[in-house]
Amino acid sequence: MSNKPNGDFQLVDAGVLLALLVVLVWAPRPWGYFFVIASALALRGRILWLRKAPKYVVYALLVYATAFVLDYISIGPQKTDKAWWEVVVLAPLAEEVVFRALPMSRLPPPLGWVFAVFIFGVLHPQNPLLASLYGLALALAYLGGGYPASAALHAFNNALWLYLGTGLF
Fold it and tell me: CA 154 to CA 145: how far, in whole Å?
């Protein structure tokens, strides 16, 4: 089975994705993150791990910069009591499996984008529109460099906001 969206989409793909989403949203932290990350190893054949498409990385960085400026102006840094390793390491690794790697590799293109951008936004209720813009940047990073690129951008974003909000890290 290919790791690119195609006609091989099966209900199993959607079921696995929805199950991991439920775990990510409702499982106690950090256990949900650990479960999703461990699942990624079992799903490694269904995920695009690496890709070289630099133009998408450039687009991702432009969209990310726009989202960051809008976020900084409209909301600004927030304090958090979460551990840095959860925010900067576990959350990006797990969320990128659920919101970018699986949907964009296994779902047909319109559904993969909806999941990667809009569902991600909806599940970040502080500001779903800004979160969707970040989701778009992360989806473009995924298209440009695969899972490592989107996870790295996500981790960078979380580390930057953690530093701005708390001075930790």
Answer: 13
pLDDT in tens, 30-73: 999 999 999 988 888 777 788 889 999 999 999 999 999 999 99
Q: What's phi and psi for 77, nearest 5 deg?
A: -65, 140
| Residue in this structure with the two tokens 């502080």, named with its chain if needed | 126
**CA 79/CA 64 separation, integer angstroms:** 21
Q: Does residue 43 fall inside a structural domain?
A: yes
Q: How many whole angstroms separate alpha carbon 136 and alpha carbon 61? A: 10
By residue range, what is the domain housing residue 80? 11-166
- Asked if residue 2 is part of any domain, the answer here is no
pTM listed for this prediction = 0.90
Rg of the chain's alpha carbons, rounded to an integer?
15
In a domain, 1, yes or no: no
